[in-house]
Design a protein that fits this description.
456 residues, alpha/beta, FAD/NAD(P)-binding domain, six-stranded antiparallel β-sheet, 12 helices
């Protein structure tokens, strides 16, 4: 029998890789993990955690304004971008230390450097070779920048957390959750923001009512949205500003351009193909339901597989691999009815199917929907509105989708997600007493419906 240095070698120190490494070591496996940048991965270091901190910061301008409606007098105020970034950096450093401590406590050996496969059982890091019975690829993804003149003048979400100053005028290119979230961040902190997307509406894949409703709300807040506007070129002006050329639009004069134009899997330079690991056309690791690649002892989890690019999903996938290999309990991650959020302003929370997806699957569905001005704004005077929507399979009356745009939507949908995952019916929702006065109670008091049938 072959003898290896480790039972499991994990390439990538993000949430999925760390969870797999920790659990495997806890089951008694000899585990090593290689990370070339910082422990914590995209989410902790330059993704959802620092992004959420910046979202919190960007809310205060409106909170100060709203306070007047409740009798508060708020005095002179100012904002310091360098102070915010420094505070964010301290918190990220703390969290990275937590991740390192958890790995070390579990007995995982940490190797610092870029890893690559020399063969199906050998990993090289910083000139050192290590062999392993099993290998887990958990290298995540990276921002994708379109090939266009002047692309080097822009920045991505990686650099957004380290800008030396807040741009006075910024154009954000893209229509996914990163683009929409940073539009809210920069707008809330005082920048003039243009959000330009090449398609007919942003947040492709979300429920259409959610997309259109959020579009109207962010424009109320001052974000200028340009649709069907593909980026063409960026040029530096004599005064130091930038000219952004967009399809179907006049040139946009801005001080900074952010690319939020998608992400690609981090598989380049890993030596996967020579080791026999099959990749998809987009460069993602091709895996089965158990996260196993085309090489039976090599697994992959998280964004590098391009399944559902969410940290909690990567964690579930990593845990399943550990349980399968060393826990004596084969497991797979469940990718159905995964709740998700967009920390836009106002935020989005959603779980289950969109109306279009439900019609395609079930043929006839019932949609219950409401939008209203939240109680808070009756005194603040703000015109922001909230949207709530339930999608019900007409035949079984099971709630198959829930969608919300409005304050606390991510917190509310987390609870609603349990009900959708459990397969509860509209009657179960109706039988639940609402908590008054809250926005969330609307989910158990929706009565007006529309019946939607497929064209077939």
């Amino acid at each position: 029998m072959a003898t290896y240095d480790y039972d499991l070698y994990v390439i990538g120190g993000g949430s999925g890789g760390v969870r797999a490494a920790r659990m495997s070591a806890g089951f008694g496996a000899r585990v090593a993990l290689a990370e070339s940048y910082r422990l914590g991965g995209t989410c902790v270091i330059r993704g959802c955690v620092p992004k959420k901190l910046l979202v919190y910061a960007s809310h205060f301008a409106e909170e100060f304004e709203d306070a007047a409606g409740y009798g508060w007098t708020v005095g002179a105020r100012s904002f310091s971008w360098p102070a915010l970034i420094a505070a964010k950096d301290r918190e990220i450093a703390r969290l990275e230390g937590v991740y390192r401590g958890l790995l070390e406590k579990a007995g995982v050996t940490i190797h610092v450097g870029q890893a690559r496969l020399l063969d199906a059982h050998t990993v090289e890091v910083a000139g050192q070779r290590h062999t392993a019975a099993h290998i887990l690829i958990a290298t995540g993804g990276r921002p994708q920048v379109p090939a266009m003149p002047g692309a080097e003048l822009g920045f991505t979400s990686n650099e957004a957390f380290h800008l030396p100053e807040l741009p006075r005028r910024v154009a954000i290119l893209g229509g996914g959750y990163i683009a929409v979230e940073f539009a809210g961040i920069f707008n809330g902190l005082g920048s003039e923001v243009v959000l330009a997307y090449r398609g007919p509406e942003f947040l492709r894949g979300f429920d259409d009512d959610v997309r259109h409703f959020l579009h109207a709300e962010i424009e109320k807040k001052g974000v200028r949205v340009l649709l069907n506007a593909p980026p063409l070129a960026i040029a530096r002006r004599a005064d130091g500003a930038l000219d952004l050329a967009l399809g179907g639009q006049p040139p946009q004069a801005v001080d900074a351009v952010m690319f939020a134009t998608g992400r690609v899997p981090n598989t380049q330079g890993l030596g996967l193909e020579p080791a026999g690991v099959a990749l998809t056309a987009s460069g993602a690791v091709r895996v089965d339901a158990a996260s196993r690649s085309s090489v039976p002892h090599i697994y992959a989890v998280g964004d590098v597989t391009q399944r559902i690019a969410l940290t909690p999903v990567a964690i579930r996938e990593g845990a399943a691999v550990a349980a399968t290999l060393y826990g004596g309990k084969p497991a797979t991650a469940d990718h159905a009815d995964v709740p998700t959020a967009v920390f836009s302003q106002p935020p989005v929370g959603t779980v289950g199917l969109t109306e279009a997806q439900a019609v395609a699957r079930y043929g006839t569905v019932e949609a219950y929907q409401t939008d209203f001005r939240a109680m808070k704004h009756t005194l603040s005077g703000r015109q922001e509105r909230t949207l709530m929507k339930l999608i019900v399979d007409a035949a079984t009356q099971r709630v198959v989708g829930a969608h919300m745009v409005g304050a606390d939507a991510p917190e509310i949908i987390q609870g609603i997600g349990i009900a959708v995952k459990a397969g509860l019916t509209k009657a179960d929702f109706d039988a639940t007493v609402g908590i008054h006065p809250t926005a969330a109670e609307e989910f158990v008091t929706l009565r007006e419906k529309k019946v939607v049938r497929s064209a077939a």
